[in-house]
């Protein structure tokens, strides 16, 4: 557990808990120190997408064409080929659940003309929201030394998403969606596992460590918490659980609870019926043993869905908490690759939000098709239950005998013992499994 002074043991760590009703800081540890956002970047990409929807610049069924530049982005990605297109709503689901880098670049080029210009729009919006120490250089969060933020700024963005876009915010509670033959689970393992959690976003690169922004609404209290720089996905999640247990009960029950974030566009904030847009309340649930001898009111239960206000398509999709997305169809024309600001590579990471390619992990198979590897991971995750709680699924491509294969792996384990235990649990469910440290 990162505990009371995690920065002593982990110099990358930064954290904050903000009362979402009053804006009061309940906890802060290096909250104003610069950090790399990784895929938390996509929160701003989604903010600008939601803003364009509200202003009528795009619709949920508007098609977004993937340029060669977008299609070649490294994983995690949807794998849409250059010249093909998907809808804006499919882009949203791809960003929220899969954290798809190719979809982030595609919507950036669609809205900004180029990703470089869209990054300038992102930074400008950050300033308008009061995010004074954040600079964006791309729309996805892959390594760039100039792309930096703070835990406080990420909390500000999380609150702004909730307050400024109550109709669209509910996308962040989506558990999974189907794309082609594969079903992708949301990378946020706290959804449905911790009482009151309704989003928001995970992120990972080697330079950033494991990041997480979490929104919690429990009865008459509400917080947004940020953990940055976790050593593993599991330790990051445990630290977030600890922050929720320590500080949720310290949050106000009487704050306004509406529009405390700066910079709401006038066309969005005017006339919002905040009473009709309240986030869900959750009924009594059993206690969960946490951190040895501390009992806290967290529960393995799904929050009751809130009433959805807005478009019929959004209401239907979110009511089910799952989305089936068709295979992309060819677009009329290929959008020329957009110029991207010069990105100085921080590290050779090829994924923005899945597990690190180091430390203890488990492998459950190798497939000739990446979608088949993903399907295997999804089945294992469903069967593994608590044994895989906090683990991060990912695929790793490698070549053998002139053929390409995809290893299906889970990472983010604290050590050999937890990886071995997870394998034993999976073997009992009929899966092949072995633990490895590389």
Which structural class do you get from the secondary structure elements?
Answer: alpha+beta
- Per CATH, which architecture of the largest domain? 3-Layer(aba) Sandwich
**Can you tell me the residue ranges where pLDDT is under 50 for at least 5 consecutive residues?**
268-357
Find the count of extended strands (DSSP E, 2+ residues).
17
Helix run count? 13
Portion of residues in beta strands equals 15-25%
Q: Strand order within the widest sheet?
A: 2-1-9-8-7
Termini separation (Å)? 24 Å
Largest sheet: 5 strands, antiparallel
What is the gyration radius calculated from CA atoms?
A: 20 Å
Specify the CATH class of the largest domain. Alpha Beta
Q: What share of the residues lie within helices? A: 25-40%
- Average of pLDDT: 77
**What global shape is seen?**
globular
The ordered H/E elements are: HEEHEHEHHHHHEEEEEHHEEHEEEHEEHE
Number of domains: 2
CATH fourth-tier homologous superfamily of the largest domain? DD-peptidase/beta-lactamase superfamily
